[in-house]
Amino acid sequence: MKTALPEDIAEFAAVATKRLARLGGPQAALRAETEEQLRHDARAALSDLGAFDLDVRSSSEDLLAGAVLCQAAGATALPYPLVEELLAIDGARLALVNPEAPRIDHGDLAGDWIAADLDGARYQVQPSSRTGAKLGPFLVPATLSQPDGTVPAVDVDLHLTLGSWRILGAVQQCLEITRQHVAARMQFGKPLAEFQAVRFTIADASVATRGLHELAKYTISRVESAPAQIRSADALVLRLKAADTARQVLRTAHQLLGALGFCDESDVSVLDRHTQSLMRLPVSTEVLAMRLMPGVRGGQLETLFSGPVSA
After folding, report:
1. Does pTM top 0.90 for this prediction?
2. How distant, in Å, are the alpha carbons of 62, 170, 267 from that of 70?
3. For the domain that residue 248 is a member of, what is the CATH number?
């Protein structure tokens, strides 16, 4: 199976990575916690890239472009709700929430918001002010109306999928920072990378990250062709895998960087803190796993041993 991205998408990904990196990367995201202008600069950079002209619902090419853009945003901890704006409905950003404890990333930004839960129930949103929490520094508590309709199931699936691509970008960047660190850091007269235990640890994290990338590409390639129930199961599995892989890679990064990985002078610390909201919201991985159980019994969750499924 050919898994390489189309040439034009790969070129767009390279351009997007360079453009977003020019904002300053994770250290700019750190400053954005107190400097409001940097979030406006992030939106301007996305506009330069044509992000808000992408029709991720109707065009498979635009959807893939949106995915690699989310990947680049994750790698730079871009301080802007890209996924929510790519999936805006009538000009209002779409947030996925847990109605029992609604939180919206960057909900304090000017503009309209609507929210949906994983079942597609639609809510009007009244965001409050930021809490200043270290994990998820842009999270905003919100008050929801009573459900007033639904959003299409495909929007929920796309939200989960594109958010997973953003997690993927953060994971890849953390792994690269860790790889560079162990290659440069000397211990007992030789680089850390020459110790077998370190090599095994990096190898495990690399395999997990590569697997997540392949699953992300596989999932997004089936958005249009898979039946609705299969597509929803795919999106849940991808988000579950993304969150689990992020925990593994971040644990590896913190282990090998030591105390440095918990200091905001390190990009790993900033990437970790700014990715926590995606890893934990709208619900925990345990809840995601439980939502997959009916699909296992009903055949909506495809495995290597599943029978053929008609599109």
Report:
1. yes
2. 12, 10, 18
3. 1.20.140.10
